[in-house]
Amino acid sequence: MKREKGYTKKNFLKGIIAENPLFVSILGTCPALATTKTIEAALGMGILFTIVLICSSVLVSLLRKVISEEIRTPAYIVIIATFVTIVKMLTNAFLPELFSTLGVFISLIVVNCIVLGRAEAYASKNNVFDSFIDALGMGLGYTLAILSMAVFREILGTGAISFGKIFYFIPYFKLQIIPKNYVLSIFQNPAGAFIVFGVILAVIAFFSNRKKEYQAYLARQEKIRKAEEAKKLAAQKAEGGNK
Amino acid sequence: MAKKHYIIVSVTLGAIAASAAALIGLTNFITRNRIEENKKIKIQEGIAEIFGKEASIKNEYSIEKNDYQYVNYVYEIQKDNTIGYAFKSEGSNMYGKISLIVGFDAANNFVSLNIVEDEQTYATALEDDYIAPVNGGSRDINDVNCGATFGAKLVRDMVNEAKKANEEKVWIK
User: Fold this and answer.
1) If DSSP codes are grouped into helix, strand and coil, which group holds residue A213?
2) Tens of pLDDT, residues A195-217
3) Average pLDDT, stretch A3-19?
4) Which of A140, A239, B29, B55 could disulfide-pair with B51, CB 3.0 to 4.6 Å?
5) Where are the domains of chain B?
6) Could you tell me the pTM of the whole model?
7) Are B154 and B93 in contact (CB under 8 A)?
8) Contact B118 A103 (CB under 8 A)
9) How far is B140 from chain A (nearest CA, A)?
10) Does the distance separating the beta carbons of B9 and A70 come in below 8 Å?
């Protein structure tokens, strides 16, 4: 089958912008609300999530001709659960602070609809390379989405950005942006997570509606222009006929 | 035909499950010792937080699990002399596993508790709204209504059992 030119780039970018799993498809919201208190925790969650997504998508794609229709779902669940267990053990061993910060949310990647969704909708129908690119784009899109939530929550909730507590191999630094007296601690609570998520969704909806309206306006203008051209042509024809 | 199909399906699922088990087993083999070391470090940090940085473990005793549901280890803590006992307690409910260090001074008074492992879904609420106030003395251990009540009930039961074990001096038996 001949591939569309620029397909790989499009396949990669769709997960980041047009089909962003969190902000467009509204999937994986539970860990997005729970693990975005700090930028570091969100980054850790994003990395672990991306690793599981890539590994499971690649393996599902590799085995797509071997796994028959009836056992598709249980087989995918076993594959995803295996990678989540491995990632959990490795995190517990080598990044214990990240393990205790994310807690149960590492295990909950098993039931994250994005992972099973990509395996079912994409990896089971496409080759290994395309599945890898798709998973990388989706993972990166999800990571960027939860990072953007974490930036707002950490700055507004604590007044500072800090790094190096969880990823202990990075020297610790803290940058105070808002004076402590002006921080809104609600942004460190679940209610704050909902507010930030809601505001980001509203901003995205506003811009996507504006884009749709602009496209509709352009289409209307084009229609008017074509109608005027047709009118002119008809008038010219009529004029020619009268002569 | 149908029989052959069922055999293929069973073999495929079996092979996937076996490979998964092998991979998890291998990862467990690689990470097991490191995880145990991390747990030991966490316990030592927990003890230091309860009794102060100069405190060290003088003796440690494993408790037979027959009589106790949660408490499984006792540490005798010293500075110059014995200053108290720390109990390692592990439990779980439908929201996940929790592992604690509960400290008592030499006069059998509760000092504070420290989390070694927390897989509770409502970990933040449990730690911020229950454990921190209990440690700070502003909340009674039996006052469990905190937004993570089931987790708090589990912690309360674990602490109360540690209290009982401390009073009974189980490690001497």
Assistant:
1) helix
2) 999 999 999 999 999 999 999 99
3) 88
4) B55
5) 43-168
6) 0.83
7) yes
8) yes
9) 24
10) yes
